[in-house]
Amino acid sequence: MGALILGILSALGVITLIAARHEIARAWQPGDRLQAVSALAIVGGGLLAQSDFTSSPALVRQGTAVVVIAVLLLAAVTARRAPDVARLGLALRPLAAAIVLWLWLFIVDAWFMFADNPSTVLARSISGILLLVVLFAQARSPMRAHHFTAALLIVLPVIMVLLPLMNRPLGNCTIFKCSEIGVILLGPFSSGNYFGLEFAMLAGLALLTISSRRLLAFVLFVAAAGLYATNARTSLFAVAAGLVVYVIANWVFRSPRGRMDRGHPVLSVIVGFAAPVVGMILIFTARADSFSNRGLIWLLGVDAVGEHSVTGIGLDSWTALQSVGEVSYHFAHSEYMAIFFSGGFIAIALFSLWLTSVAYAGSYGQERPGKWIVLPFIFSTLGTLEVVWNPLTIDGLTWHAVALSCAVMPAAMARMTAAKDEVTLPLRAR
User: Are β-strands 170-172 and 183-185 bridged in parallel, bridged antiparallel, or unpaired?
Assistant: First the structure.
């Protein structure tokens, strides 16, 4: 049965590469190739670092950071146009918010852990440097959502094709979950849930960037097949909920004149704050056996934070406390537990403001805002029960936040350009 499943998924990977070849080629057109290389490097390098393909994940992470930073700088300095910061203000706001969040988490980590482990704390600066370089490059030669879609349409199908050659691509059922096929797809990763996160993000990016209905339906089918095989229930729920939000938001928030004159503040705040609030409620009301024993991880994490709930106690405190048994040997198993532990309620607020800025910049001037909020919605929903981004490291999850922050560029820039033209053209006519 296992060999049959791997054979089907491998064949599906080949078909996906063939079916998506034009979508991939669109991202690799002249003038966009350096951005496409950057997106592929941050997606592929990050996932490689988390996989069984490498015996030195730290080296792969560092190499990924070096390659992405070098290519982005090359793209920026060779760009033909000078940056128009005033026009790009709204589009760059999500990246600026992400950098503020990273800075706060870095300060807290340094405050609590620098004396005990200075080299590890200083290494956390690499992820901040990456965000700063992305911000600089976006002003001149921006990455866009379709670059990340193309990268994922290369990386995930290649992984699927290679499944039959892997040592242990299938795992046994656990006491918490099992599907009808009797096994759980792990791929090259240690967890089916981790693999499932990538299929969920593929679905969100596909809804945002793929215009062909036939290809969109096929990519969503591939994502659904991957989610079913990995039995990643949180990811499956997030995608299903995202599809519902996609339909409802497009219907409820559509402007009678055909487009929104500004980003919808209510919709943006809901997307930015709803999941973090729900996530924190789940954490603080959990029992030890809640959500497949995630509750125990959260209870220990909250106890460890103790009186530092406003500021948190720094990301690297988790490792230090693991060594003495005061927190779980598993990591937070919730984005909001990880952010709260690392930076307290201040970090939760900053994270929510970042998500709000992503939703606002994306929906700005759009006829169908649901298309632009579905990706941050899926991302934030995943975060209730899974870690989807660690701002202080570069790994297979880093690209999630970078893609979200960069995806708003075409939307915000197009609307700001239109608004500028509406003002200047009448003046010229006079």
Answer: antiparallel
Structural contact between residues 364 and 262, judged by C-beta atoms closer than 8 angstroms: yes
- State the Cα–Cα distance between residues 172 and 188, nearest whole angstrom: 15
The burial of 313, by beta-carbon neighbours within 10 Å (0-12 exposed, 13-18 middle, 19 or more buried), is given as: buried
Cβ(23)–Cβ(149) below 8 Å? yes
What's the CA gap between 314 and 339, in Å, rounded? 9
Q: What is the CA radius of gyration of the chain?
A: 21
3-state secondary structure of 66: helix
Whose structure tokens read 């706001």? 93
- Give dist(CA 141, CA 73) in Å, integer: 9
The HSE-up count of residue 185 (CA atoms within 13 Å, CB side) is 32
Q: pLDDT tens digits for the chain (430 residues)?
A: 678 889 999 999 999 999 999 999 999 998 888 999 999 999 999 999 888 888 788 888 888 889 999 998 998 888 765 555 555 677 788 999 999 999 999 999 999 999 888 999 999 999 999 999 999 888 888 888 999 999 999 999 999 999 999 988 988 877 777 777 788 999 999 889 999 999 999 999 999 899 899 999 999 999 999 999 999 999 999 999 999 988 887 777 665 544 444 557 788 888 899 999 999 999 999 999 898 889 999 999 999 999 999 999 999 999 999 989 898 888 899 999 999 999 999 999 999 999 999 988 877 756 666 777 889 999 999 999 999 999 999 999 999 999 999 887 755 554 444 444 444 434 433 3
Q: How far is CA 221 from CA 12, 142, 196, 217, in A?
A: 10, 30, 14, 6
Residue 330: strand, helix, or coil: coil
Cβ pair 199, 232 in contact under 8 A: yes
Q: Domain segments of the chain: what residues? A: 2-82+91-412
Instruction: Give the separation between CA 263 and CA 138, rounded to whole angstroms.
Output: 20
> DSSP labels for 91-131?
HHHHHHHHHHHHHHHHHHHHHHHTTT-HHHHHHTHHHHHHH
Helices 290-305 & 265-285, crossing angle to 10 degrees? 90
Which residues partner with 185 through β-bridges?
170
User: How far is the C-alpha of 391 from the C-alpha of 239, rounded, in Å?
Assistant: 23
